[in-house]
Amino acid sequence: MLGTYAGLFYCFLYLPILLLVLLSFNDSQTIGLPFQGVTLRWYREVLGSPDMIRSILNSVLLASRARASERCLRNCWRSGSARNSRLRRC
Question: pTM for the complete prediction?
Fold first, then answer.
C-alpha cells in the first residue's frame, strides 16, 4: 500500500516536469498537443540571449558558493563535535 502511495506521489511530482520537457520540443507557438513538429528553436532562443546566459552563470556561481559554505560549516561542526562529547550524541 505504501509503495502505491509513493508511486502516485512521484508521478505527481515528476510527470509535469517530464511533460514540460517533452513539450519544449514542439514547433507550435502555443504549449499543448498535438505536436506540429520537432524543433530545438526554444533552446536556441534561450541560449542565444545574453541575459539568460548571465542568469545561468549567476545560478551556478551561487550554487557553488552555497556548497562551499555548507562544507565549511559542516567541517566546523564535525571538528567541534569531535572535541565535545555532548555533541557526539547528535
Answer: 0.58
